[in-house]
Amino acid sequence: MKSMTYLKTISLFCCIVFLFSCGGSSYNTDYLPPNTDADVKDIFPKTIVGLENEVAKMDISDTDYRGVRATYGEGEIKIEIVRNLKDGSTTNYIENFLYSKIDAFPNNSRVSVNGNWTGKGSDDKTKLFAWVNEDWIFLIESKKSLFDEVIVNFDYISEY
Asked: What is the mean pLDDT of the chain?
């Protein structure tokens, strides 16, 4: 019995080491999601590094989801927020829309721990980070050089 506990402890330790060795920063996404009656224009930062936002409704083929995207500048920064309006499940959206986006990056990972899903991807120029908070899905995609500024300016994420 002690050997099983020891093996579980070692396995957990190895998983934690693996997650931290995947590189990059770790982010705190444990913030209250937006109020359901919030004006979407108030959810996004008005400007990031002097680039103004353009907020638009996302065209999502799955009618259970509604989303908005803020694009800054000529697309140097994109922030997407999607919400499940039906049953609160985010699985279909993640599997049908986000996996392919994340997997397109040469450096990518997806992980779900205790129901908290995150995904990230990067290449030489771009960085992407996505996460789930309750029935909300958040995604940030930007030039690598601007990514830290997005984290500083967006209310639903911070760096540890």
From this structure: 87
Question: Distance between CA 92 and CA 44 in Å, rounded?
Answer: 25
Q: Which domains does the chain have, with CATH numbers?
A: 27-159 (3.40.1000)
**Distance (Å, rounded) from C-alpha 33 to C-alpha 83?**
10
Dist. CA 126–CA 16, nearest whole Å: 26
- In this structure, what token pair is assigned to residue 69? 């995207």
Q: What is the pLDDT of residue 155?
A: 96
Q: Which of 109, 143, 99 is nearest to 124 (CA)?
A: 143
Span 16-38, average pLDDT: 71
| pLDDT tens figures, 94-137 | 999 999 999 999 999 999 888 889 999 999 999 999 999 999 99
Q: How far is CA 51 from CA 7, 48, 70, in A?
A: 51, 5, 11
Query: Do residues 98 and 6 touch, judged by C-beta distance below 8 A?
Result: no
For Cα atoms 148, 126, 110, give the angle at the middle one, nearest 5 degrees. Answer: 85
